[in-house]
Design goal:
Two copies of one chain form a homodimer.
Chain A lengths: L2 E9 L3 E7 L5 E8 L6 H19 E9 L3 E2 L4 E3 L9 E2 L1 H9 L3 E4 L1 H12 L8 E6 L3 E7 L2 E2 L36 H13 L17 H9 L3 H25 L3 E5 L7 H13 L10 E4 L7 H16 L1
Parallel strand pairs in A: 1-4, 4-8, 9-12, 12-13
Antiparallel strand pairs in A: 1-2, 2-3, 5-6, 6-7, 9-10, 10-11
Chain lengths: ~325, ~325
C-alpha cells in the first residue's frame, strides 16, 4: 500500500538532516549530508532527492516538504542573511525544494519549526496558545496564537531571545547589550558560572575547567553533586528566564510554555527557579493559568519532526 | 430607506456613552447615562434601550451591539472584577445586551476596542499587524496579529502596561513594582515631574503647582514654553516607552504602533523621544520597518467608534 509521507529537512550550519515522516510522526528514512559541501543550495536539494530517490519511488507518496533553517522566513520561503550558513544573502530554498520535488514546500526558522512539531506530535496537541522556548547556544522561541505560529508582518516575529532584560547588560551577538539569550541559554549559564567564580572564593569543582571546556552538562553534573556555584548559576538563569516569561505572558497570554533544548534537559535544576520567578512576577489575572512544561520531542528528532510537522500542518490547511 | 447600524457602548466608571454608528463610522445618535446609578447592570441595558427606542424604530436596522469596558473579556462577553466599576464579580454584559436587543452582542476591553476602531475607521485600515497603545491614566494596549485582536487563551492578552520594565521600580496599582504604566502614562509623567523637581534645583514653572493639580496638559504647556523639567519628563517617558516598544516588536513584529490617549496628544514632545529610543534599541532585522503613528480617531469618539467597530467586525465574520 502507498503510504503518505512528508519530507522533513533540518538545515544546520554543519549538517543537514532529512527524513520521511508519516502523519503520526514515524520516521521511515533518515540521512544527513554536510551542509558546507554545497556552495549552491540547489545542489544540496538535488543531493537530498538523489538519496531519497529509490525510497520514495518504492513505497511512499510525498505530500509536501517542510524545512527548518536558521533565519528562515515562512512568508517568503527563504533563508535570509544567516550568519552561521555559507550561503550569503537571501536563498529561496522553499522554491528550490518545490521545483525539485514537485510538492508544496514550506520553510520556517528552527524555533518555529520546533513549536509546530510540539503542536502536531508533542505535548501541546490540545493547546492553541503556547510558547516554545529553546534553550541552546542561544534562546529561540516560537509563539503559537490560536493554533497558528505568530509570524508578524514580515515573518520575523518571536525573537524572545532578543528582548533586552538588562540595561547595559551582557554583550549579545546581535550587537546590542542585555538580551535575554545572553543570560538564559547554555552560553548564558556558562558566563554566569565564570562571573560567579571570578567574584567569589567559594570552592567549586568547576574551577578545574577551562572556560572553553565548560558545558551545560558539566554545570548540571556539578549542581547535582551539590556544587554551590553551579546551583547558584541555575538559580540566576531561571530568575532571568522566569521574569522574562512573566512579561511575555502579559503580551500573549499563553496556556503553556514549553522548555526545550540543551539546558531544558537539566530538569528541575532549571524548571524550578524558572517557574518560581515566573509565578512570582505574574500579573494577578494570569496567576495559576500558565503551565511550564518540558517538550515531548526527543532532542535528536525535534528539528526534523518540527520541519515535517510544518509540512503536514500547511498541506492540511490547503 | 432603512439604514443598517450597530450600537456602540462605552462603559466608563462614571459615564456610559452609547451611539448608533453606521458602516462608515458616522454617528447618528449619541447619549450618555451615569453608570453608577445602575446597581444592576441589566437596568443599565434597559435604560439604553429605552433611550434608543424611538430612534431605532424610526429609521434603523440594528445589526449588532459592541461594548468596550474595563476588564472586558471578549471570549466570555463578561466584565470581570473591574476595580473602577460598582459591579463586583463577573457580569455577563454581552448576554444582557443580546437578550434585550435581540442582536448579536460582543464585548472587549477598552484598549482592544480602540485597536478595532483604528483598524476599521482609522489609520490602520490596510495594516494587519499593529499595536495600539493608549496613554491615559494608565497604559492600555490592543495587539493586532494578522487582522485579529490577540486575545490569548483566556481573553486577557495585551497587557503591555503591566510588563515590568524596572526592577524594584515604581509601585503599580496592580500590586507589583516597575510596570511600564507607572512610567509611560499621564500618571507616570506626573510622577516623573515630581521626582525631577525633588531631586534638583532647576527653575520650573511646574514648582508652582500642587501635585494633585498637575496634568498632562499642564506639563505639555510647560514643555512648549521651554521648561527644562517638563521637557526632561517627556524625554524620560519616551525613553521608557520606546525601549518597551523595541522589546514588544521582537515578540509580535508589527508594521505600525499607534499611540493614542491623553499623552499621545502632546505630539512631537512624546513621539520624538519614543521613536528615538524605540529605533535605537531595535534588533537589526526590524530596523526601518516599524512606523510610530498617531491615532486617526477623535479622543471623544474613539471608545464609541471602537465598540461599534467591534460589532461591525464580528457580525461581518458571521
Amino acid at each position: 500500500m502507498v503510504k503518505q509521507v512528508v519530507l522533513g529537512v533540518d538545515i544546520g550550519g554543519t549538517n543537514t538532516t532529512f527524513a520521511l515522516v508519516d502523519k503520526e510522526g514515524r520516521i521511515s528514512f533518515k540521512d544527513n549530508i554536510p551542509t558546507r559541501q554545497y556552495s549552491d543550495a540547489r545542489n544540496l536539494v538535488r543531493k537530498i532527492k538523489e538519496s531519497l530517490g529509490a525510497e520514495l519511488l518504492a513505497n511512499d507518496r510525498l505530500m509536501g516538504v517542510g524545512v527548518g533553517a536558521p533565519n528562515g522566513n515562512f512568508y517568503n520561503g527563504t533563508i535570509e542573511f544567516a550568519p552561521n550558513l555559507q550561503w550569503t544573502g537571501i536563498i529561496p530554498l522553499a522554491r528550490y525544494f518545490q521545483e525539485e520535488f514537485k510538492a508544496p514546500s514550506y520553510l520556517t526558522n528552527d524555533a518555529n519549526a520546533a513549536a509546530v512539531g510540539e503542536m502536531i506530535f508533542g505535548n501541546t496537541k490540545n493547546i492553541k496558545d503556547f510558547i516554545m522556548v529553546t534553550l541552546g547556544t542561544g534562546l529561540g522561541s516560537g509563539i503559537v496564537v490560536n493554533g497558528q505560529i505568530l509570524y508578524g508582518h514580515d515573518g520575523f516575529a518571536g525573537e524572545l531571545g532578543h528582548v533586552i532584560v538588562k540595561e547595559n547588560g551582557r554583550q549579545c551577538g546581535c550587537g546590542r547589550k542585555g538580551c535575554l539569550e545572553t543570560y538564559a541559554s547554555v552560553t548564558g549559564i556558562k558566563t554566569t558560572v565564570v562571573e560567579l567564580l571570578e567574584s567569589s572564593n567559594i570552592e567549586s569543582e568547576l574551577r578545574g575547567f577551562k572556560v572553553v571546556d565548560l558545558s551545560g552538562k558539566i554545570i548540571e553534573q556539578a549542581a547535582v553533586n551539590g556544587d554551590e556555584i553551579a546551583q547558584k548559576a541555575f538559580g540566576i538563569t531561571g530568575e532571568y528566564l522566569g521574569k522574562a516569561l512573566a512579561n511575555i505572558i502579559a503580551i500573549t497570554s499563553p496556556k503553556a510554555i514549553v522548555l526545550f533544548g540543551g539546558l531544558a534537559q537539566s530538569g528541575d535544576l532549571i524548571f524550578k527557579p524558572t517557574e518560581y520567578f515566573m509565578n512570582k512576577n505574574l500579573l494577578k489575572i494570569y496567576e495559576k493559568k500558565v503551565k511550564l512544561i518540558p517538550s515531548a520531542l526527543k532532542s535528536n528528532e525535534a528539528a526534523l519532526l518540527g520541519a515535517a510537522a510544518l509540512a503536514w500542518k500547511e498541506t492540511a490547511n490547503k
